Amino acid sequence: xxxxxxxxxxxxxxxxxxxxxxxxxxxxxxxxxxxxxxxxxxxxxxxxxxxxxxxxxxxxxxxxxxxxxxxxxxxxxxxxxxxxxxxxxxxxxxxxxxxxxxxxxxxxxxxxxxxxxxxxxxxxxxxxxxxxxxxxxxxxxxxxxxxxxxxxxxxxxxxxxx
Length: 162
Hints:
The protein is α+β, with helices and mostly antiparallel strands. The protein has a single domain, classed as Mago nashi protein (2-Layer Sandwich), CATH 3.30.1560. 27% of the residues lie in helices and 25% in strands. The protein has four helices and six strands; from the N terminus they run αββββαββαα. It has a six-stranded antiparallel beta sheet with strand order 4-3-2-1-5-6, sandwiched between helices. Helix 2 packs antiparallel against helix 3 (131-142).
């Protein structure tokens, strides 16, 4: 549960505690509130130099073996695509507002980008008028994390039923 709270707060993870760089982008997703044997969540942080770290957890776990990490590096073009998507979205000047509709069930995907010293929040349930802008930036961040890395972390994480 503490891990979920951390994801919601979108604070920096301990992985980067020793790095002088703050994350340029954060992407977090989960499959909602389900029984532990079915639950998964992952979070990726991308530094300005393209270095990224993914933490994948099963069953509400917060440490190994339920949580595992995978790291890599995104190329400069991918990092620039994240920044350009954030610029193009206009979210730095006109932030996305949360939906007034109460979301029931299902997973959440959210994120954050540091754009020229400003935080661009990417809420999990933006109002309808902001959905496309938020999703465009989330897609750019997600593109930086290879599907193979997510699959590797998923395969290595040990859930409560395994």
